[in-house]
Every structure is written in structure tokens, then in C-alpha cells.
Write a structure and sequence with these properties.
The protein is 67% helix and 0% strand. The protein has two domains: 24-154 and 166-181, UbiA prenyltransferase (Tetracycline Repressor, domain 2, Orthogonal Bundle); 183-312. By secondary structure, it is mainly α.
Amino acid sequence: MTAQPPVLPAPELQPAPDPGAARIGLPRAVLRTSRPRQWPKNLLVFAAPVAAADRGRIEGLGGALVAFVVFTLASCAVYFVNDVADAERDRHHPAKCTRPVASGDLAERHALAVAVACVALAEAGALVISSAGLAACLTGYLAMSFLYSATLKHLPVLELTMLASGFVLRAIGGAAAAAVAPSGWFVLVCSLGALLVAISKRYTELAALGPAAVGHRPCLRRYTPRGLRLAQRAVSMAMIGAYLGWALLNGSRWAVDWHLVTVLPLAAALLRFDRLTGRATMAKVEDLITRDGPMLGCELVWLVLFVAAGTT
């Protein structure tokens, strides 16, 4: 096992933003609060249709596209509500103090109004394609996300499962919108991957901020860097095992061979992810997945092999 990264000195608390500081416009403040850099995570809605592709044909692509728009709107609503709930704490965070609501660039009432509009549009989108499964996943996602923002984020362990469930509901919602029945192995792999991301988020926060982390996220007082690191690696190994189970029991004999080959770039990506998160960094976990060159290389190789398996 590699040595634990050194805990960086606790950063000084940031003062509240200067009311007289230059303000950004309302449209830009709304866009920043909606977190466009986080929208790619909603691509999970395509996971089930792509995994179920038969000889290169992806069924239900139109429904999955609607699901992508629906979950993007829903996640934006959650960001607006979460920023209002965390505004005071964010003002003293070394990075989050620049968020529009925390800095005063976006009034709380305006943020909540945009959140309501996003929820209404998201629910309407689910009704457009008459997908009861998508509507149920969307409603569940919104309910759990708002509960998480209100109180559940302060409960250790439970908050990890709540955070992970948001990713899983995206995948299941996409499957429902595309009228694809996901296998149990598929759901298990998605669940373990989502839990891995959630644990990694907490580890990087705790390792980078040190003792000050508890002031920004109280539940972190119940975690230790060593415990989170061990949990991260255990979940990674379980994910590889679940993926092997899916590969062995999915598709034709030729497709199985191809799917087994895809385990190699997946394992390489998880090893790279382990190394990246092992650094005491303030970088977002999502950026480690989508902006690191070697990681992107592993993901591209996996995707090419996976698509090749689907065309056989």
C-alpha cells in the first residue's frame, strides 16, 4: 500500500465578499451556478442503451437524449438550491467563496426561482415521452437531492450512499427512457462506480483541507483519510469483479471475449484514478476523470473496445 499523502496546512478562512466588489451580470451568474462543467455526468443516461447495443444498433437513442436534457435541468435545480443552503458556509471556503450566491452576485430568491423553473421543465420533459420510469427516477433524484441538501449531507456514510444514488438514478432513468431493461450486473457496476466517486470526493476534501475540512463539511469529522482510502480501493476491486461478472454473462461468445478485453483499460483507469486522488489536491474529482491525459487515454481505449464488442 502506498504511503498516505501529506495533509496540507489548513488554509486561512476567507472573509465575506466585499459588497462593493465588481459584480457579474445575472445571466452569467445563473450560468455559473448551473455548473456547465458538471453536465457531462448526465451522459450516464446513455450507459444502458450503449451497453445493450446489438451489432452497432443503439435502441431508444431519442429517449436517452430526452433523459439527458431532463437530468441536466434537474441537476441544475439541485445546484441552485444547494448553493442557497450552503451560502454562509461557502463564504468561508477557499474555493467555494466565489460561487455567485455566496459572493452576492446572485440573490437567493433568484436562485430559488430558477430552481423551480428547472424542476418544472424537467418534469415536463419526462411527460413528453410518456416514460413513467424516467419520471419516477427523476422524482426520486430530486427528492433525495433536496433532502441531501437540507439535512442528510451531515450524516456520515448515509451521505455517501445518497450522493452515489444520484449517479445510479441517471443510468436507470436513461434505461427507462430508452425502453432498455438493465441487467443486475449493470446496475451493480454503476452503483459501485458511483460509490467510488463519492468516497473519492470526501477523501480529496479531507486530505487537501486538513482540519479545516470539518468546518466546511461537518460529516468529515467521522471519516479518516486512511479509512476513506481503504474504502476507495475496496470498492475499486469490487467494481472490477462486478464488471467481470457482467462481461462473462453478456452477449455472444465473441462479444464476451471483447468485453473481457475491456477489463484491461478499465483496470488501468482505476489505477490512474487511485493515483490522482491520492494527491492532496483541491481539484474536483470530476476534473480528474475528464481532464487528465492518461485517464482520458484509458477511457478512449475502453470505449473503442466496448464499441467493437457491440458491433460483433
